[in-house]
From TrEMBL, chain A:
Residues 1-23 are annotated as: Disordered. This is CU044_5270 family protein. Keywords: Membrane, Transmembrane, Transmembrane helix. The lineage of its organism: Bacteria, Bacillati, Actinomycetota, Actinomycetes, Streptosporangiales. InterPro entries: CU044_5270-like. The chain crosses the membrane at residues 45-64.
TrEMBL record, chain B:
The lineage of its organism: Bacteria, Bacillati, Actinomycetota, Actinomycetes, Streptosporangiales. It comes from the Bacteria. One of its GO terms (biological process) is DNA-templated transcription initiation. This is RNA polymerase sigma-70 factor (ECF subfamily). Keywords: DNA-binding, Sigma factor, Transcription, Transcription regulation. It comes from Nonomuraea soli. One of its GO terms (molecular function) is DNA binding. NCBIfam families: sigma70-ECF. Residues 27-91 form the RNA polymerase sigma-70 region domain. Residues 127-175 form the RNA polymerase sigma factor 70 region 4 type domain.
Length: 297, 187
């Protein structure tokens, strides 16, 4: 038996993975797949596209269908971005945040359970939609998904915006915004990237939007995030819109990043991300509540 | 389980760009093989992690998959080999431990049992020492040929090196091992 045969013989004699190891590895992969359904643009070129879309959209907003009070640019080119039915000044976004804060008065300031349950409707790249259920520990120690009809729990957190970060945020909008800017500055420093002030605004808005899309938040914190978003330069409010689940709502938007909010209950409805005319992500939060254990709805 | 020829790996990976859940099929097809390869090099405990991470990395890199390769085996083995490279010290420790274990059992008078096992799960002390003495690139190429049964072309794709380099690495590695086993060269 030569050396190749010896090595091959030894290889073939390996017992193979145990059922437990196979199951654990599959759960990890399923968790990653679940995250990817609505992954935000993480690669630099997509971030650059998003930043470019910000500039394009900002110009388009001025010429799309402005309110009478908004300036019209004479001779402006045909907008590259689809028009929205109604555009109002950012003060409407501030009113939205104030209304949400007023409604949140007296609501619990902390999570009312160790797990956050969310049911998302997501748009797949071929245009179809799918729903995803997720249970996420508010201490970031684990999350769980349904795979082949079974609940799988995965240790750790694979979420870009952790609950640790979200729950550490102050409920004063200005302070919350400052803390969020700092988080983005630290992230970009780690990545050794230099960003423009416009990109800093966009990434901060995106960070907060990402934080809301797969989490359940105390109402006061949610209102403060709306308030912080309203303070970001360039953020626009649209009074008439519909989310992926075709629910009527209002939106806060910066460039291609957009969140949908129910103007009556101030509930967060969903998130959409576009780069130019490319739709990168669109999902709607169908259900969201704190629960006592994974699997509980 | 042999790959379903009606649905190539390449088409599944292409589909998984729009429908990520399709990628689970790639896992089902190749996880046992990748695990076995990692276990040979690192032991079964470390193989659990490396094999799992191979599929996470593959999923993240699926947009870069070259559709010219209908089968994903070389691609997956290449990713696994890169991950194993991060555990080089563990791999060398394993070879040394296998060598010592076999020698100790032989000293204890269990020669017959050792003789049965050295050709299966265990390595002969000489072969273990020979593997430990190989350069990383040479060991990667040899084990992909011997254990994963990849062709030189597939090894080249897996490691991102020219086919000629694969040949020279494998030949060099085989000479070292044959010397360790005191087997005369064929020429």
């Amino acid at each position: 038996m030569d050396e190749i045969q010896l090595l091959r013989h030894r290889h073939d004699a390996q017992p193979g993975p145990s059922p437990e190891a196979t199951r654990a590895a599959r759960v990890r992969l399923t968790g990653r797949i679940s995250r990817s359904h609505a992954a935000r643009p993480r690669r630099p070129f997509l971030l650059i596209m998003a930043a470019a879309a910000l500039a394009t959209a900002a110009a388009a907003i001025l010429v799309a269908r402005p309110d009478p009070g908004l300036p019209r640019r004479p001779g402006a080119a045909t907008p590259a971005v689809t028009t929205t039915p109604t555009l109002r000044p950012v003060s409407s976004a501030e009113r939205l945040a104030l209304g949400a804060a007023a409604k949140a008065a007296g609501a619990p300031a902390e999570p009312t359970g160790p797990w956050a349950y969310t049911k998302l409707m997501v748009r797949l790249q071929d245009g179809r939609t799918a729903t995803q259920e997720l249970w996420r520990r508010v201490d970031d120690s684990a999350f769980a998904v349904i795979e082949n009809g079974e609940l799988r729990t995965i240790k750790g957190s694979e979420f870009e915006v952790t609950y640790g970060f979200l729950l550490s945020l102050p409920t004063d909008p200005a302070a919350l915004l400052e803390r969020s800017y700092t988080a983005i500055d630290e992230r970009e420093a780690r990545l050794k990237r230099k960003i423009t002030p416009e990109e800093r605004d966009l990434f901060t808005f995106q960070h907060l939007a990402m934080g809301m899309r797969e989490s359940v938040l105390p109402e006061g914190l949610r209102a403060a995030i709306y308030g912080a978003m309203a303070k970001i330069p360039g953020v626009r409010y649209s009074g008439r819109s519909a989310d992926l689940a075709k629910r009527k709502g209002v939106t806060l938007r910066l460039g291609g990043e957009e969140i949908f909010v129910d103007p009556g209950s101030y509930a967060y409805l969903g998130y959409r991300s576009r780069a130019g005319d490319r739709l990168l992500n669109w999902d709607s939060l169908l259900l969201g509540r704190f629960v006592d254990r994974a699997g509980e709805r | 389980m042999p790959p379903d020829l009606r649905t190539s790996d390449a088409s599944i990976i292409a589909r998984s760009r729009a429908e990520p859940e399709c990628f689970a099929e790639i896992f089902d097809r190749y996880f046992p093989a990748i695990h076995r390869y990692a276990a040979v090099r690192l032991g079964s405990a470390a193989a659990d992690d490396v094999a799992a991470e191979t599929f996470l990395a593959a999923f993240d890199q699926r947009h870069r998959y070259d559709p010219a390769w209908p089968q994903a085996r070389p691609w997956l083995y290449g990713i696994a080999t890169n991950l194993i490279g991060r555990h080089r010290r563990s791999e060398l420790r394993l070879y040394r431990a296998l060598s010592r274990t076999a020698e100790r059992e032989a000293d204890d008078g269990h020669a017959d049992r050792v003789a049965e096992r050295v050709s299966a799960e265990q390595l002969t002390p000489a072969l273990a020492r020979g593997l430990a003495a190989l350069g990383k690139g040479d060991r990667d190429a040899l084990l992909l040929v011997a254990c994963a049964e990849l062709s030189y072309g597939e090894v080249a794709a897996a490691l991102g090196i020219p086919v000629g380099t694969v040949g020279s690495r494998v030949n060099r590695a085989r000479r070292v091992l044959r010397s360790a086993l005191s087997v005369p060269d064929e020429r």
